[in-house]
Amino acid sequence: MKTSQTLIATLREVPAEAVIASHQLMLRAGLLRKLGNGLFAYLPFGLRAFRKVENIIREEMNNIGALEFRPSVVVPGELWRESGRWETMGAGMLRVTNRVDQELVVSPTAEEAFTSLIRDELSSYKQLPITAYQINTKYRDEIRPRYGVMRGREFTMKDAYSFHADQKSLDETYDNFAVAYRKIFKRLGLSVIPVRADAGAMGGTGSEEFMVESAVGDDTLILCPSCGYAANTEKAACEQDIPLNAEGKPQQKTDKPKEAIDTPNVRTIEELSSFLKTNPQTFIKTLIYKVLNSELDLTKAPGCASLKRVTDTGDAAKFYPVSFFAVCIRGDLDVNEAKLASLLKASEVELACDDDVVRITNAPVGFAGPAGLSSVPVIADESVLVMHDAVTGGLAKDVHFIHVEPGRDFTPFMTGDVRTVVAGDKCASCGAEYYSKKGNELGHIFKLGYKYTKAMNVTYLDENGKLQIPTMGCYGIGVDRALASIIEEHHDENGIVWTMSVAPYQAVIVPIKYEGAMKETADALYEEFKKAGIEVLLDDRNERPGVKFKDMDLIGIPVRVVVGDKNLPNVEIKERAKPEPELIPSSKAASHVKTIIDAALADLNS
Ligand code: ATP
Ligand code: MG
């Protein structure tokens, strides 16, 4: 391709809206433009790199026997009603109604579509296992799209779904994906941190996330320097520590009855610590949460008798659209809302608004406590279960309780681990101190089990002619996010430094001036490079050499061949990732550059 015939859309200034390197560079190198909030257009150079990422993913999927499908992006809402997710998906899912009032969904993910497709094709055990995938558009109405295509609203995902007669078969396919994902990331030149969602203490391998480190990552990774435990903070567990009082001693069990004390204008944990001159580890903090779409059975839960439970969704789970819970945790710890949502089998949890807190606790905000609370179920974090002689809110203005004994003064409806694990907490597997890193999720592999096949009635006949339900796995990778992550990992102050496997072009020929002998040599090299199978760009623009060099560095073309009067019959070959150029006779340039490219690709593919 000649630069005069394509669109070089480089920008000298850093666009104000872009804060991370990959977003800035995608705009500056002319790979990407914004169309709206979270909505983008790839320009020709960006699209070339994007297609290469896609193809590497496609090749590795095909290599493990996954079959590529192409479902529509807009799917009937009916499918989502069958799975039960029409109700539970929340506002992130874009729903539209067409002219005949049919409900439609712009796919945020495609478990429903693939489960329905396989349901229609599957009849016999002989067809299993089967793995289907697509590389296709997704739409999620993200609340805060940001960092360019790292978190967009419309994006492209490779999503795969596998169906199996038994767990062993699912395990095998899952393991194949685990290997294929590592190959994909290696070929893309990405360093990923595989994070087992159920690592360490729990054993098992039901889910693995592939994270890339990023200072502005939306996820926090909890890592153990000693045993290698790695978990997303949404799942991370830690060793239970014993709470200490102001003297640095464990608080002892007390026989003293719970006692109300006057604590005028004391609401926060800090105010309470200084008022009582003690350590927040002796307080039980109580937070009122509003919970959406909980699938728990609350028929026997305190205060839940009149709650509305939605039961008209066929085989899909029954759930409560809205419920409230009081969540208790040790005073110095924070509740992790992802862990809480998963404990409560809910789609979303959020702190209740002041009015709801006042109604539920019958007191101003700041005096919630579990003892004597009957209007909502109490959830106790495991940290609370080892506490003694604790302080809690007193369910009245300016009142706290002291000498509270969990189990004696209140009985939780449910207990579980909802604590936010942080650096410095002890490893759940080996006891060493955790450290943490920020990161983004690039991919995810997950054993789904029977959730969708049961809800959507997928069956097949086994060897004995008996009707069976298959088990399922699902596997995603964000294509745009992978592309942005490559730039995030491979750039310098002058621009992008593409990995050879995904560079929009592998080499660029830059004549100092596109005239005379330089033009002749550049044209001849261009033809030779193309014959040698090199994806080559010829910068035939009538620009100063400095401008052309700057543009090609910014765009990040891996090999630059400069054709200048002074050096002919030699040409200067410079690799983007290396500081020094070398002089090579122009007659050897094509084979030399081909060697560089092949070596780089072989290294990535090894
Ligand atoms: P996140 O926690 O970052 O929102 P997720 O858990 O919602 O991710 P999945 O539903 O597992 O993501 O989707 C699979 C992959 O799709 C992710 O690993 C990521 O690479 C990509 N992805 C998800 N949401 C977005 C988005 N808004 N923009 C770009 N890529 C995305
Ligand atoms: Mg998400």
Task: Describe what is shown at a glance.
With 606 residues, the chain is α+β, with helices and mostly antiparallel strands. Helix 2 (44-63) packs across helix 12 (479-489) and helix 13 packs parallel to helix 15.
Structural description of this entry:
Strands 3, 7, 8, 9, 10, 11, 12, 21 and 24 form a 9-stranded mixed β-sheet that branches. The longest helix is centred in the first third of the chain and has 22 residues, at 167-188. The protein is globular and about 100 Å long. By secondary structure, it is of the alpha+beta class. α2 crosses α12 (479-489). Mean pLDDT is 94; it is low at 199-204. Helices cover 27% and strands 27% of the residues. β22 and β23 (467-468) form a beta hairpin. The structure holds adenosine-5'-triphosphate and magnesium ion. Residues 109, 140, 142, 151-152, 155, 157, 218, 441-444, 476-478, 480-481 line the site of adenosine-5'-triphosphate.
Helices and strands, with pairings:
Blueprint lengths: L20 H8 L3 E5 L2 E4 L1 H20 L3 E2 L5 E3 H7 L1 H4 L5 E4 L5 E4 L4 H11 L8 E10 L14 E11 L2 H22 L4 E4 L10 E7 L5 E5 L6 E3 L26 E4 L6 H8 L7 E11 L25 E11 L6 H7 L4 E4 L2 H8 L16 E4 H4 L4 E4 L5 E6 L9 E3 L18 E15 L1 H5 L4 E2 L5 E2 L2 E8 H11 L1 E2 L2 E2 L10 E5 L4 H16 L4 E3 L6 H11 L3 E5 L6 E6 L6 E4 H20 L1
Parallel strand pairs: 3-7, 15-17, 17-20, 27-28, 27-29
Antiparallel strand pairs: 1-2, 4-6, 5-6, 7-8, 8-24, 9-10, 10-21, 11-12, 11-21, 13-19, 14-15, 14-16, 18-19, 21-24, 22-23, 25-26, 29-30, 30-31
Helix pairs in contact: 1-12, 2-6, 2-12, 13-15
The site of adenosine-5'-triphosphate has 17 residues, from strand 8, strand 21, strand 24 and helix 12.
